[in-house]
Amino acid sequence: MPTKTLRIPTADGHADAFAAFPDGGGRHPGVLMYADGFGIRPVLRDMARELAGHGYYVLVPHLLYRHGPAPVVELPAHIGEEDRPAVFARLMPLIEAHTAERVLSDADAYLGFLAAQPEVGAGPVAVTGYCIGGLYAMRTAAAHPGQVAAVAAFHGPVGVDGPDLFSKITAQVHLGHAEGDVTPEAFDELNQVLDAAGVDHASEIYPGTIHGFTMSDTDAFSASGLKRHWDRLIPLLDRTLAKGE
Fold this sequence. Notes:
single chain, 245 residues, alpha/beta, Rossmann fold, 8-stranded mixed sheet, 8 strands
């Protein structure tokens, strides 16, 4: 599986990034993958490789590059419950400084860079995100309706921006919620807002999961939740992105 370490020019500097794409040459549909708050690390590289194996060029940018290259906070190999408070105490001020304006400015740079890669085919792209990256993925899709054909967010706070965000999305959407993140009432309300905004979406609660369930290097990990995530994500991309260039 070919991989690259890259530097993406942005309005505020350069974002380091990781990319994975299929063997055998050719051009492939592009996927922009936003990490969770812990950022680029081995588990994200593994997930990018897994997705690339299904025929996609996957770009994973370092979202907090303004504070230095990844990792901006030293992470244990396994992020257990005993580690989370100290890690988040250092990460949260950086995440809070990553404003919506910064997200959108960076999204412009990431999508432009992705489209320019020689391994990426012409045509629409997809955006996927995890945790806070799920919100960034939705913001990116809303800001680039002509370019983003699919967006998927997993255990992310996607309802934060409300109807104004959803009304701008033309992509097909999949939302995979952790059971521990959302009440049935909040879930129903979110889906009603999506319906009212005319968003083509599938939104579901993944049974028996808690926040962060896709990440195998945390105590939140759910093997069944991760499998369900792939079972939803890959068909979404296959439906919306044209392969074979």
